[in-house]
Structure formats: C-alpha cells, structure tokens
Design a protein that fits this description.
The chain is built from 7 helices and no strands. It starts with a helix and ends in a 13-residue tail after the last helix. The protein has one domain. With 177 residues, it is mainly α.
Length: 177
C-alpha cells in the first residue's frame, strides 16, 4: 500500500494535468479512503481500500461521461481532501472545525477548477500528490509541513512548465517567442 500511495503521489505531483482522468480517479480514491477512515475507524484496511477504489472508479466514470460535472466534482473533492489534510494536521483535539473546513475547501476547489481549469488542476494535483507522498513516507512531524510545501511547489513548477510548453491549439495564433 505504501508503494502504491507513493506512486500515485508522484504521478499526481508531476503529471496531474496531463493525466486528468487518472487525477480525477486518484482524488476520488483519496477522498473515499479519507471518508472511510473517518466513518469506519474500527473497520479493516481492506474495507477502506475497497471504498477508496470504488470512489476512484466512480470519479473516473463520471469524468468520462459527464466531463463538466466531473470537473466540478473533482475540484470539490480535491479541495475538500486538501482542506481535510490540513485541518487534521492543525486541529487542537476537536473535530468541530474539520467538516466546515472540508466543505469550504471543497466549494473553493470546485469554483477555482471551473474558473481556471488548467491552473487549478495543477495546484490541486500537486497538493494532493504531496499529501499522498507524505502519507506514504511518514516523515518526522517537524518535517511534515516544510516537506509538504516543497513537494507541492515542485509539482506546481514542473506542471506549469509543461503548460507553457504546450503547442498552440488550432485556430489560435502561434505565440511569439
């Protein structure tokens, strides 16, 4: 499971925008695992993985058939997952603020994704990829936040470089170099 999380994290971090449907599926997987872990604290790991895989598959199917809805849904789930990861890290013994933070993060993620698609996918996939990698490697607590920031910024830098190198689309004037 650790190797899978690490692989998914690196793939999201570096290629989240290029592999959009993988990104949607991976975000669905992460959200399903997080919700299952929260709801079934005493449940087996295989139950959480099953729910995560089902959520990821649902996200990929939605992305294929209902692209615009899936994009908004992926933005909501990605924003909610990133907010959840941050809320859990910074909460002070109370679950009271976790859900409002998750919902707010989800709404923000959906709105951003629908408004600025490319850049939002880059940022959300980088944040989600960084969270997956940290979950896989379990760094010391003092290193978690700096490592998360470095990984996320690395993913954003790599993917933004790929965005700038895209060839111009038909019907658009070629950019002057």
């Amino acid at each position: 499971m650790i190797i899978l999380l690490f692989f998914i994290g690196v793939t999201l971090l570096l290629f989240g925008r290029k592999l959009l449907w993988f990104c949607v599926g991976a975000i669905g997987f992460a959200a399903g695992m997080a919700v299952a872990s929260y709801l079934f604290r005493e449940g087996s790991e295989s139950l959480r993985v099953f729910i995560g895989l089902g959520s990821g598959l649902l996200g990929a199917i939605l992305a294929f058939f209902l692209q615009r809805i899936a994009v908004g849904f992926a933005g909501f789930i990605g924003g909610a997952y990133a907010a959840y990861a941050l809320a859990v890290r910074f909460q002070s013994g109370s679950d009271q603020m976790v859900w409002p933070t998750v919902i707010l993060g989800g709404i923000l993620g959906a709105v951003l994704l629908l408004m600025a698609f490319d850049w939002t996918v880059v940022v959300l996939s980088s944040l989600t990829g960084a969270a997956f990698i940290l979950q896989a490697i379990h760094p010391r607590e003092v290193l978690e936040i700096p490592l998360f920031v470095v990984l996320a910024l690395t993913g954003i830098a790599v993917q933004s470089g790929m965005l700038r190198k895209r060839p111009s689309q038909p019907g658009h004037a070629a950019s002057k170099g």
